[in-house]
Amino acid sequence: MALKVAIVGLPNVGKSTLFNALTQTAAAQAANYPFCTIEPNVGDVAVPEPRLEALAGIAGSKEIIPARINFVDVAGLVKGASKGEGLGNQFLANIRDCDAVAFVARCFIDTDITHVEGRIDPLSDLDIIETELMLADLESLEKRLPNVEKKAKTGGDKEAGETLRLIRIALEQLNAGRPARAAVISKDDEKAWHMLQLLTALPALYVCNVEEASADKGNDLSALVVERAVKDKAKAVIISAQIESEIALLDPAERAEFLETLGLTEPGLNRLIREAYSLLGLQSYFTVGPKETRAWTINVGATAPQAAGVIHNDFEKGFIRAETIAYDDFVRLKGEAGAKEAGKMRQEGKEYVVQDGDVMHFRFNV
Asked: pTM score, two decimals?
């Protein structure tokens, strides 16, 4: 399961600097002028998972394979992007196939770095971005509406009728100045709702980009954004993109020492990725052996057959049972043999709901 997160914001808020840190490359040109990122840069990075090291050490695994997360660095949006201002239409289209949106808000003051609006106001920045996304959604839905209405009315098309109902729900929110994610959608409607491809229906994460001195606790500007996130039922994380780009270039020993001087226990990027996982209701389970120890990403609430299907469709189709050990038991009892001897290896069936950190081995027959 590949999680894809769009990094969006106004020009010069630190999007590309953050992306560079995430991918530990200089793939995105972080320059002090608008539209320095013309094509969306896509970075595939490992999800930080310290439990993998412990599992691999016990099993003597030759290789560790973490879960992956994709970040898309979308070029800076400006007021009027939904009408094509700047490079708006192109940029908005790059967000549609993502699973979530990380809104980068500039929460630092630096007179050497220009701001496209001529002032530092992160809440206003968020309003501009959200408004442009809402306007783009409105335009998309209003274009579709006549055709869907016609099909629902004249053809007796049940699917069109359901789509029309969801379009009207979305339009009600958007016309009231609220993002589509504010709508309450039933579980049965989730798939059809997703098919509308609404930018403002995507889960939102607010990234407060602060200066170095505020990397540990944030500042007055980031506090406003965190408060806004609570109101919007979004997630928020405080991070210094500039610091993260420096940390990314250090070796592990230097990194730990540098973090300690900043009052941090881990890079802010780790928090960012964990918040993205939490935002989408994701968790990890593990497969462990002498060849490799690997993390697999699944939805919270996934059953054992669904978890098996992440590895291969045949595993889900022919699922028989899952030999399961909780992570803590695996580590405490020094591996599979110890867990089995202590009665901590469980035989789980099709109804078992996988827990975060489960170590699993699937039995199947195709």
From this structure: 0.82
